[in-house]
Amino acid sequence: MVRVIFSLDTEDYITPQHDDAVEFWAKLFAERKIRGCFNVVAEYARALKARKRGDIINLVSGNEADYHSNVHSVHPTFPEYLDTMDWDDGINEVIRKEAEGIKDVEDIFGQHPSSYMQPGGSFAPPGPLRDVPDGDPGYDLDFPFFSVKTEAALVLLRA
Ligand SMILES: [Zn+2]
Fold this sequence. Notes:
three-stranded parallel β-sheet, globular, mainly alpha, binds zinc ion, 7 helices, TIM Barrel
């Protein structure tokens, strides 16, 4: 049997027309009884709430509202601010910066994000998406700042 994951970055909190694309996909999934994965940037979730788009929040809530960082590409990005930190300081800093975003996505969509998708150029392998349920990221990287970010995301997602 072939399994397909429909995974959509849901991240443009600046352009209100982005809501139309999110609505299109969420309605399409609902019509076909498909549960998609909307990788939601917390700032986008907050923007939907501020724009009183409960209709879209409800549509996305029928799918997975996964976590795609607090503010996506706003500087400093993960590699930029983690570059000079050691492992423990890096984990603590990511948790400090991301905890509010995860809580907002959870509160707005009524579900704890089941996975984490790295934002844009803040690359990390798809291990977290695959392995969050058992808590094992399942890979080893030579880039500690990326691993720190992923480890912190796993800590947050398990909370
Ligand atoms: Zn993205």
